[in-house]
Amino acid sequence: MADFHEFYPLRAHNTFGFDSHARLAAHIRSESDLVSALSDPRAAGLPVVVLGGGSNVVLTGDLDASVLLMEIPGYEVGHDAANWLVTVGAGENWHATVGRTIADGMPGLENLALIPGTVGAAPIQNIGAYGVELRERFHSLRALDRQTGQFVTLDLDTCAFGYRDSLFKRDGRDRYIITAVTLRLPKVWQPVLNYGELARELESIPAPDAAQIRAAVIAIRSRKLPDPAQIGNAGSFFKNPVVEAARRDALSAQYPALVSYPQPDGRYKLAAGWLIDQCGFKGLDDGPVGVYGKQALVLVHHGGGTGAALLGLANRIADTVEARFGVRIEPEPVIL
Ligand code: EPU
């Protein structure tokens, strides 16, 4: 039998800090805890919601669901000819894992420092920052396939990673529950310093090592992203929209300051933060929810508000951006 709690408060389990209760919730500390929670008759017929750090969700009300609080630990180092293969439990903290691998002499995750959340959540949106995405450091993951009841290993191709996207946001959405992730860290390390802001931060250090790059990433993020322990938020609220070259050229003729980045497929990613900023939303307070003053892409909750109010603001922002630039921006977090 699983150790279920009824009407369990989730405020401490979502970084927006919204008040919400789960009909049932269980702490999952092993694969066998997971199996018992899924087969428990008390949860029969209820939807299952897996929460890691709760750093990429918007809770819009109480969850009439069986909420599994993913806390599976683990850290095991293996290797093949070219790579360290580090298998980490889904419930381990991501940022702590970045620090631990570097301290253990296996650099590679330094550009992804200070991203909130757990290791098991990282593949779902293919976390990325400062020129590196998880998929470039990913070997495989272990998950329970709810369709067959079997544990499976899914490799890089099967996970179908894209920009803030994967199998787990699409066909695999309610099918797989991730229990461990195997990271692939090349034994021959190459720093990634192609992100302008990161290169500038490290200007005074001729050949920075992974620990120095990690420190620089922490410095940049701390300057422009709010600490969820202080202000409720889920990092970037919108994805940067990707548009055809013709659309980008037309926009950039009209708005010479438009920020855009060429993509390998010939299209362009537009900086949603810039688009929102141009519409005057940066620093806006709409009662208990608002737009962060130092980064227009981040929505914040000051306390006492609801996920529904936040979504209302998000829609207003997306509508205004679309009316002005003809581009629809989409939310990044999972809305529950
Ligand atoms: N900008 C503005 N005004 C703003 C915000 C941004 O003009 O209010 C401009 C900036 O001046 C810059 C451009 O927009 O020229 C891009 O801004 P930034 O470098 O801050 O990156 P971003 O596109 O806003 C993305 C990721 C972040 C990631 C950084 C660094 C997305 C949705 N966001 O932000 O990821 O840390 O790049 O790689 O792709 C997250 O996903 O939660 C997240 C924080």
From TrEMBL:
Record field: catalytic activity: UDP-N-acetyl-alpha-D-muramate + NADP(+) = UDP-N-acetyl-3-O-(1-carboxyvinyl)-alpha-D-glucosamine + NADPH + H(+)
EC number: 1.3.1.98
Active site: 164, 236, 332
One GO term (biological process): cell division
Compartment(s) of residence: Cytoplasm
Major site of localization recorded for this protein: cytoplasm
SUPFAM superfamilies: FAD-binding/transporter-associated domain-like, Uridine diphospho-N-Acetylenolpyruvylglucosamine reductase, MurB, C-terminal domain
Keyword Nuclease: no
Pathway: Cell wall biogenesis; peptidoglycan biosynthesis
Domain of life of the organism encoding this protein: Bacteria
Needed co-factor(s): FAD
A cellular component annotation (GO) from this entry: cytosol
Gene Ontology terms, MF aspect: FAD binding; UDP-N-acetylmuramate dehydrogenase activity
Domain FAD-binding PCMH-type positions: 18-188
Function according to Swiss-Prot or TrEMBL: Cell wall formation.
Family: Belongs to the MurB family.
Protein name per the record: UDP-N-acetylenolpyruvoylglucosamine reductase
Lineage: Bacteria, Pseudomonadati, Pseudomonadota, Betaproteobacteria, Burkholderiales
